[in-house]
Amino acid sequence: MNKRQVGKKSKIKKTSQSKIGRGLTVRVKSARGRKPSSTRWLQRQLNDPYVLAAQRSGLRSRAAFKLEDLDKKFKILKPNMRVIELGAAPGGWTQILVNRLGTENLNTKNKIVAIDLLEMDPIPGAKILQLDFLSNDAVKIITEALGGKADLVLSDMAPKITGHSGTDHLRIMDLTQTAYNFAKDVLTNGGCFVSKVFQGGTEKNLLDEMKRSFEQVRHAKPPSSRTGSSEMFVVAKNYRKI
């Protein structure tokens, strides 16, 4: 879904995931100039129940349901917490954060800073930063915008997939490691880190480091992740600065 399709003041309509089902299959005919891979992607989008549910609910992406799934399982989102979201565009996770934490009212203590290299339409209740979180002054800029250290760092970032398993493994590991290193700089004691990984894509050394820094480290594949995808999430809770 194009991020421009959702207005600044759009409201999220509650959609029960138990009611998300499959309807009639839409067949997409190949068009001149369109690659077969593009036709397959379009057909998958048109027949994806989570894409349709996101559109009905006013959500900017189907990925929003993944955060809902993870929060339901791990109880990640807490009242009055400060949250940093990496790779936020187009804003599906940000919408869920604003909705769950009630930050539409700017007088609340909840604060959300959403960061991406891409431009992102505003979402009332969240601070949007078009920024490289690896830049030298990023930590200072982000923590000042947040008003302190974070209770939760989220990363739904993913590298561009090449189809070569070895290359893709290295890319996702590098991205997960950099997000984790950033999280250690900005998390408060007791904080939580959630990051996208792929099956087989979290090396033992990184997991061992996480287990030394967090009381609990778990993997999960949300029900809303595509069936054929190797996508998973690592959820690390109760940060202990060492």
Model description:
This protein is an alpha/beta fold and 242 residues long. It contains seven helices and seven strands. The chain has a seven-stranded mixed sheet with strand order 3-2-1-4-5-7-6, sandwiched between helices.
What characteristics describe this protein?
disordered N terminus; 7-stranded mixed beta sheet; alpha/beta; 7 helices; 34% helix
Strand tally, please?
Answer: 7
Order of helices and strands: HHHEHEEHEHEHEE
What would you call the shape?
A: globular
Query: What's the pLDDT, averaged over the residues?
Result: 80
Distance between the termini: 42 Å
Q: Helical stretch count?
A: 7
Question: What does the secondary structure layout of this molecule look like, with pairings?
Answer:
Layout: H1 36-46, H2 49-57, H3 64-74, E1 82-86, H4 92-101, E2 111-116, E3 127-130, H5 138-146, E4 150-155, H6 165-186, E5 187-198, H7 204-213, E6 214-220, E7 231-239
Parallel strand pairs: 1-2, 1-4, 2-3, 4-5
Antiparallel strand pairs: 5-7, 6-7
Helix pairs in contact: 3-4
